[in-house]
Design goal:
- The protein has about 150 residues and is of the alpha+beta class.
- It has two domains: about 70 residues, Ubiquitin-like (UB roll) (Roll), CATH 3.10.20; about 70 residues, Orthogonal Bundle (DNA polymerase, domain 1), CATH 1.10.150.120.
- It contains six helices and five strands; from the N terminus they run ββαββαβαααα.
- Strands 2-1-5-3-4 form a five-stranded mixed beta sheet, with helices on both faces.
- A hairpin with a 2-residue loop joins strand 3 and strand 4.
- Helix 3 packs across helix 6.
- The protein starts with a strand and ends with a helix.
């Protein structure tokens, strides 16, 4: 049995210790906001926060997630500046990659509230958007930065 803390709730799942965290989140807990993209940690669709840091959940065995605080897109507050900016800037096209994009951006801004253009590009590199909404993603990140400065 594996005990996990996801979105501030305790879960116990009966899975093999090497099952990827992504599959536990999606298939066992039915938190389907976190997406499967490539299965190799290259696209960012499965990004969650583990102890506040953006991590690719498809590459993390569930046993390594025990005892850590895991946050999925469902656990990120609707009032979070990044989520609000994504809506305000109408970022999604197909929307598939957006949970991973949002989680990556939220982690970046928690770590560095006022990143440079280059730092944004570097931090977001590797989160792939098939619809190429990159300009809107960058605009939304800048909107979230501005909102963060107002508080």
């Amino acid at each position: 049995m594996t005990k996990l803390t996801i979105n501030e709730e305790e879960y116990t799942v009966d899975v093999e210790p090497d099952v990827p965290l992504l599959w536990v989140i999606r298939e066992h807990l039915k938190l389907t906001g976190t997406k499967f993209g490539c299965g190799m940690g290259l696209c960012g669709a499965c990004t969650v926060h583990i102890n506040g840091k953006a991590q690719r959940s498809c590459q993390i065995p569930v046993q390594q997630a025990q005892g850590k605080k895991i946050t999925t897109i469902e656990g990120l507050s609707e009032e979070h500046p990044v989520k609000k900016a994504w809506i305000r800037e109408d970022v999604p096209q197909c929307g598939y990659c957006q949970p991973g994009q949002i989680m990556q951006a939220a982690s970046m801004l928690a770590e560095k509230p006022n990143p440079t253009h280059e730092e944004i590009m570097e931090y977001m590199n590797g989160n792939i958007c098939r619809c190429s909404t990159y300009p809107r993603i960058k605009t939304a990140i800048n909107t979230a930065i501005k909102e963060g400065k107002k508080k």
